[in-house]
Design a protein that fits this description.
With 127 residues, the protein is an alpha/beta fold. It has a single domain, classed as NAD(P)-binding Rossmann-like Domain (Rossmann fold, 3-Layer(aba) Sandwich), CATH 3.40.50. It contains five helices and five strands. The two termini are 20 Å apart. The relative contact order is 0.20.
């Protein structure tokens, strides 16, 4: 399946990363998703930030897509600890990729894709 068709599905996404820093890709991806009307929630796994969701498992919505914009260790930790959601897709951004995450996704029947969300969706005028 290609990214354009995945991003055209009406599912709820989680963006995991530094969603509060305007200079970071996690923030840019989250805001672009929001601006285009996607169902999306931000997750920041950094303990020093209060008042924001810190782990994927804490989200009450039905998450089916995850966009990783975080270190591979934090990404793996969030995916490994989450058993609440029926995740269909994990999109790993540059710098967020690892074989360990890829294997976890394979074991759980999740489609793992290494791609740049902003580039893909800007080309399709979706973001």
């Amino acid at each position: 399946m290609n990214l354009e068709s995945i991003y055209s599905e009406e599912i709820t996404w989680a963006v995991i990363g530094d969603i509060l820093n305007k200079e970071k890709y996690a923030y840019k991806i989250l805001k672009n998703f929001e601006n285009k009307g996607y169902n999306v929630v931000g997750v920041t796994p950094y303990d020093e930030i209060d008042g924001e969701m810190k782990e994927l498992k804490d989200i009450d919505l039905n998450i089916e897509g995850v966009n990783l914009c975080v270190s591979p260790s934090k990404g793996y930790e969030n995916l490994f600890n989450d058993t609440n959601h029926k995740i269909k897709y994990v999109i790993a951004q540059p710098g967020a990729r690892s074989e360990k995450i890829k294997e976890l996704c394979k074991d759980r029947g999740i489609e793992y894709i290494e791609a740049c969300t902003l580039v893909t969706l800007i080309k399709k005028n979706r973001i």
